[in-house]
Specification:
By secondary structure, the chain is an alpha/beta fold. The protein has six helices and 15 strands. The longest helix is centred in the middle third of the chain and has 18 residues.
Length: about 290
């Protein structure tokens, strides 16, 4: 099976209304639609752009006001997913549950369903400055285009959680990200390559670009979209199917051949998934592993 994926290097800048946000979102979605994409990925924390709308005194809204936009955010992306027939992974959006704030990735299905995956590993800034709470469960999501997982930014730096996602059946890991400098960007990028090699999966990642000059901790962004493959003969030698231009407002698109994954897992130059030592480091639910 082939699936076409697009990833958005979302440009953050100050806006004055939700309608401006919706218009920018629509631009990227229509671009992916013109390419015939099955999935489109937006970055982590891209909805913080809504905080720049500000209050009645012109001051940027604090992070705990972001959940106020949740209903409109969901309505916007449900409408686009149903209209286009695409699966829209609308980055992450901060939601509130029982008085706690969570950084949650959302996937909008073409039939109107909404899937959620809370970020599982929280960075010091998210904890200390924004009082975020961590999610407590990992899910994978079955679509008519294959089984996928959504692991946000810092999550990809933990090999155990990606191994669990593959053990549960995920062939594609979507990794929305938001990093403010080269160090953070390369942590996410290098570990994305590692996870693709270890588990023989595709990793689709992207990040925010631009600047929110009035929103604390969103003033600097360093981002690049990429579609990352295992490093084996059927794939590009550097494991990069496509990547964007760093810090540019753009969208990248690539085709993923799932059959190639299944082939290299069985008879590749190396078979890292098959050769893992589950007698030494057990997988998640080993009796239910997929190959």
């Amino acid at each position: 099976m082939n699936i076409r994926v697009s990833a958005v290097q979302y440009h953050l800048h100050t806006i004055k209304s939700f309608e401006e946000f919706a218009s920018q979102v629509e631009h990227y979605i229509k671009t992916a639609e013109e390419f015939g994409s099955d999935f489109i990925l937006f970055p982590e924390f891209f909805t913080t752009q809504l905080l720049s709308i500000g209050d009645e005194n012109g001051r940027a809204l604090p992070i705990d006001r972001l959940p106020d936009f949740t209903d409109r955010y969901r309505e916007l992306f449900v409408e686009h997913a149903m209209r286009t027939g695409m699966h829209i992974i609308a980055g992450t959006h901060v939601i509130e549950k029982e008085g706690e704030l969570y950084n949650v990735a959302h996937m909008f299905y073409p039939d109107g369903r909404i899937a959620e995956q809370a970020k599982l590993h929280i960075t010091p800034t998210e904890v200390e400055e924004w009082n975020m709470s961590a999610g407590d469960s990992l899910q994978v999501f079955v679509t008519d285009k294959g089984t996928v997982a959504m692991l946000t930014c810092y999550d990809i730096e933990f090999p155990e959680i990606v191994r669990m996602a593959k053990a549960k059946g995920a062939d594609v890991i979507f990794c929305p990200s938001c990093t403010d400098d080269r160090h953070g960007f390369h942590r996410v990028r290098y570990t994305s390559h590692s996870r693709a090699i270890e588990n023989q999966v595709y990793v689709v990642t992207t990040g925010t670009v631009g600047s929110l000059q009035t929103v604390d901790f969103m003033r600097g962004n360093f981002g690049q979209a990429a579609v990352i493959t295992p490093n084996d003969v059927p794939f590009p030698p550097k494991g990069i199917m496509v990547q964007g231009e760093i810090n540019q407002d753009m969208i990248v698109t690539a085709d993923l051949n799932l059959e190639l994954l299944y082939k290299v897992r069985q008879s590749g130059s190396v078979t890292t998934w098959r050769d893992r030592r589950t007698d030494l480091y057990p997988d998640w639910e080993p009796e239910k592993l997929t190959y």
